Amino acid sequence: MVGLSSCSHSGILGQLYRVRYWDGSPSSKRDNQNRLNRCKKGNCPLGPLEGIGYGFGIAFQPINLFFCFLGALVGTLIGVLPGIGPGGALALLLPITFYLPPSTAIIMLAGIYYGAMYGGSTTSILVNIPGEAASVVTCLDGYQMARKGRAGPALGMAAMGSFIAGTLSIAGLMFVAPPLARFALKFGSPEYVAIIVFGLTLLSFLASGSQLKAFMMGVFGLLIGSVGTDPIDSINRFTFGSVYLMDGVGLIPVVMGLFGISEIFLNLEEEKFRSILKEKIKNLFPNLKDWVDSKWPILRGTVIGFFIGILPGGNAIIASIISYAAEKKISKYPEKFGTGVIEGVAGPESANNASSQASFIPLLSLGIPTNAVMALLLASLMIHGVLPGPLLINQNPDVFWSVIASMYIGNIMLLVLNLPLIGLWVQVLKIPYAYLFPFIFLFCLLGTYSLSNTMFDIGVMIFFGILGYLMKKFEYEPTPLILAFVLGPMFEDNLRRSLIISGGSFAIFFERPISAVFVIAALLLLLSSVLPGIKKRKKLIPPAE
Amino acid sequence: MRKGGKRRTFLLLMWIVLLVWVSLGSDEALSADYPNKPIEWVIPWPAGGRTDIASRMIAPFLEKNLGVPLVVINKVGGAGMIGYTYVKEAKPDGHTVSMGGQGLLVGSYLKPGVSVWDYTWVARVYWTPVILVVNEKSPFKNVKELVEYAKANPKKLRHGNSGTGNSTHLAAEKFAMHVGIKLTEVPYKGEGPSVIGIGAGEVDMAFGLMAAFRPLVEEGKLRVLGVADEKRNPLYPQVPTFREQGYDFIDPAWEGIHTPKGLPQNVYDKLSEGCKKALTNPELIEKFTKIQFNVSYQPGPELTKWLQSWDRQVGKLISDIGLPTEK
C-alpha cells in the first residue's frame, strides 16, 4: 500500500487516467503534471501491470481465493439451475457480504455474476431450457447438438468460449477501462436510437423459419414491451388498472415462460428425452474441426459482447442474441443455423461473458451501474464505504486491482470447474424426465418469485409458458419476440427523448457522427439482404423490348 | 419392509413441516413483549437503490438496539405501490417497518390508494439538499448566469430528470417557478440514465443529489452551480448555496422510517427509541457521511409536524405544474 496513492499513473495511462478534483476544477493540474513527468521518467510505481501485480498479491490471499472460488461455484450453480439468475441470488447474498472486507465481498459477488454466465448454457444445451436469461439463444443450436449426441462438445465449447471471452474482456477492463467509460459517455439518446435500429435490422436474420411469423413475433414483443408506465409522460398504458403491470412485464418471467415452462409442457406429451438417449454420446470435448469453426465466432462474440457491455443499458441477453444473428448473417451456411452448428453456441456464449465482464467498466470507473446486477455490486461497495468512480483507482487501489486480478483467477477456476463437470452434466440426460422436470419447474417458480417477492411474476411466467407451448406447436420462434421486447422500450424511450432534445427534427440522427454511422450501417445491412433478391428477380424478368 | 421405512420417513417429514408451519403461524404478537419475532423491513424498490442501501446500513444498528433479527425485503412493483400497500395493510404490531419519503409524498397526489398519512412516522433518517449541475462545457459558471440566460430565452434550456413526477423533476419545476423562468423538460428512465444524460451533455442542467452526481463531478464532466440549502453542506463546503447567489431556493430529498398506522403506544416508544439510538450513533453517521449522505435524525412527532407543512407545499406545487394525476 505504501507509496501507491502518491503516484498511480504511468505512460499513456497516466494521461488517460486524468485526475481532477471533485468540483471539476482542474486545480490539480500542476500536481498532475508533476506526476506525469515523474511517470515519463519511468519511476511511477503503479501502472496497469504493476497494478495487476499488486492486485494478484491481494487476490491470492487465502481468504480471497476461497471467496473467489465460492463465488465461481455459487455462480455456476445458479447459472445451471433454471429460473434462478444472478440478480436474485446476489440480492439474497448481499447481506452476507457486509461481514467481509470490501475487496473480498466484491470478489465473491463478481464471481457469482460471471460464474452464472458459464453455467447458464448447461441446461440450454441439455434440456432446451435456459439456465439464465442470457443463454436463450444457446438453446437454438446447443440443444440440437445435444440431440445429435454432441452435448459434450457443445458444453466444452461454451466453457472454452466463455473463458477466452472473459479473459480478453478483463484485459480490456485492465488497460482501457477509464477511457472506454468516457467513450460510453458519448452515447446519448440519438446514438442509442441508431444502435437499436441497427440491432433490430439484425433481427431479421434471426428467424430460421417463416419471415412473416418472425415479424409477427417481433411486433408482439414490441407490444408487450409497451405495457406499463410510459417513459416520458408517466402515463399508464395497457395496465388494465393493475398496479402489478405499472412497471411493465418482467424480462425473466417472460424468458423462463417462453423457453422453460413451455418446454416442460411439451415434454409432458412427447417423450423426447428417450430419443436423446438412443443416440450415443460421441465425445466429451470439441474436436479440431469444432475449434476451427468456433475460432472467429468466439472472437467476434467477444467484441460484440464487450462493446454492448460497456454501454449503459446494454445487457448480456442483447449481446448474445446480436452475436447469434451476426454469426448467422456472416456464415456461409446460414440455413444450417438452428440444426446444431457449433458457431451458434460459441458466439453467443462468448458474447454474454464478454458483456458481463465489460459491464464492470462503467461501474468501476464512472460509478454507473448498467444493469440490475451492477446496481447490487454498487450497493455492496457503497455500504462498505467504497465509492466507485474515477477516483476509485487512486482511493482504493486495493479494491480496484484485486477485483480485476480475481477475475483472471476466477475465470481459470471456472474453466477447471466446468470442464470435468461436463461428463457429469451429460449424465443428467439419463435421468428420466419424470424426476428431472418437476425439479426444473420448482426452480423456475422459486427463481421467478425471488425477483420481486410477488406471486404476480409467477403468473406471468405460467401465462408465457402456455403461450410458448402454443408457439412451439404452431412453429413461431420466440427469439425475435425476446429481442423486440428488450429493445422496443429502449427504442421508444430514446427516440422520444432525442426528438424532445432536437425540437422534433429527425436530422439529429444524422448530425451526430456515431449515430450517423450506425444508421448508415443499418441501411447498408438492409440493402445487402434486399439486393440479391432484386438481382435474382431481374434475371427472371425478361428484358423489356 | 424397505418400502414401509420409506413411507414412515416421509410421514415424519410431513409432520415436521406441519409443526414448523403451525409454530410459525400461531405466535400472537403481544405488544408487551415487543419485539418477539424478526422484524420485516419492507422496501418498495429493487435491491441496490438508495433506499435499499440506506436501509441495509441502518439495519444492523437497529437490530442491536431491538434485540431481534431485522430482515430487509424488497417488495418491488407498480412504481412502489406494491410495497406501499403491503406495509399499509400489515398488522400494526411494529414487526413491519418501511422507509420512504419524497417519492411516497408525491405519490400521494398522483396515484390512487397512496397517502403519507396512512402510516405512522417514527423517525427521519436523512434530509439532503438537491444540487444543480451543468455539463463541463456549459457556459454558465453560476446560478445567476443561468437564470439570466433562461429569462432571455424561455424554454431554450433543457433540464434532465429521473422521470416525470420524480423529485428531481419537481425540484427543477419548483426552481423555475421560484425564479420565474421557463424550461423544457427531458425525462429519463431512472436516476442512472439521467446522470449519463447530463454527463453526455444532451441536457443543459439537472437537479439531483450529490450522491448521484458525485462520480461524474469527480471525473470533471459536471460542474456544481449551487446547493439548495440554508447553509453550505459540510460534505462539500466548496459549493455555494442558492441563497448566497441571491435565490432563496431550498429543496431536499428526505426519507423517514414508517410503519402501518395504529401502533400500540409501548411498541411505538420502543421502536422510536431503537431508531433514535441507531440514527444518532456516530459510527452510523460516519458510514453515511462516507457515501455523501447527511444523516439528520428527527423524532416521529416533529417529523410528522414538518411533513404536514411540507405536504401542503408539495401539493400546491403539483397542482401548479399540472402533473397528470390518477386520483
| Multimeric organization | heterodimer
**Largest Cβ-defined interface:** A-B, 60 and 61 residues
Work out the helix count of chain B.
11
User: How much beta of chain A, percentage-wise?
Assistant: under 5%
Beta-strand residue fraction of chain B: 15-25%
- Helix and strand content put the structural class of chain A at mainly alpha
What would your notes on this structure say?
- The complex is a heterodimer of chains A (545) and B (327).
- Chain A is built from 24 helices and two strands.
- Chain A is mainly α.
- Chain A has a two-stranded antiparallel sheet with strand order 1-2.
- In chain A, helix 4 (62-80) crosses helix 19 and helix 9 packs parallel to helix 24 (513-540).
- Chain A is globular and about 70 Å long.
- The N and C termini of chain A lie far apart (85 Å).
- Chain B is elongated and about 85 Å long.
- Mean pLDDT of chain B is 90; it is low at 25-29.
- The chains are: A mainly alpha (545), B alpha/beta (327).
- Chains A and B meet through helix 17 and helix 22 of A and helix 2, strand 2, helix 3, strand 7 and helix 7 of B.
